[in-house]
Amino acid sequence: MKPMKIALDVDGVLADIIQVWINEYNRKHNTSINKETVNEWDFWRELGVDKYEFYYQLSNCWSQWKEVPAMENGVADAVEKLHSFGVVDIVTARDRESTKYVLNWLEHNRIRYKEYVAVPDGRDKANLDYDVFIDDSPHNAVRMVSKGRNVLLYDQPWNKSVNDERIVRIKRLTEAVNIISDFNTKFGNQYKLQKFLG
């Protein structure tokens, strides 16, 4: 049996790029938006920012890659532990302009991965052949489980509304390590026939 394939998202899972965007927005508009109050995936609409402008600005935030904080302390160690269960790929919705900055950030933060997979739209991830997805997008998570994928949803203010019982919510990557370890212990190399909550 092939090794388990784990798809690991960047924005909102490994890197806190939204905090950088919020800081920039607050600076430019003299506002005091707090990330913890962002309770919708497309929160930028309420701010009068259209989708294309938001993603353009978010992409530009990556040019400050040295200033982008990790989502949690010890992120590289947690990712390293995920490698003990199989192949870990970075799977991200990404434009070409920010890719070089994201790659720099991953290297700078010592995050090891096998392949870097960029898709034009996050919803496309569900069509990829992975056994486990670790993501923060509520839309991606719902689409992934609807296609029979295992999803670990990295807890963020913008995905609190997701309550699909097939989706496992995690607050830290170490929780993902523990869940996958338990799953691997329980099912061994028969994991492809099982679902986390199936």
Overview in brief:
The protein is of the alpha/beta class and 198 residues long.
Q: What can you tell me about this protein's structure?
A:
The protein is of the alpha/beta class and 198 residues long. Helices cover 35% and strands 15% of the residues. It contains 6 helices and 6 strands, in the order βαααβαββαββα. Helix 3 packs parallel to helix 6 (173-187). The model has no long low-confidence stretch (mean pLDDT 92).
Keywords:
single chain, 198 residues, alpha/beta, Rossmann fold, 2 domains, six-stranded parallel β-sheet, 6 helices, 15% strand
Largest sheet: 6 strands, parallel
Number of helices: 6
Side-by-side strand order of the widest sheet: 3-2-1-4-5-6
Total strands: the figure is 6
In terms of topology, how is this protein built?
Blueprint (H helix, E strand, L loop, with lengths): L3 E5 L8 H13 L21 H11 L13 H8 L3 E8 L2 H13 L7 E4 L12 E4 L2 H9 L3 E5 L12 E4 L2 H15 L11
Parallel strand pairs: 1-2, 1-4, 2-3, 4-5, 5-6
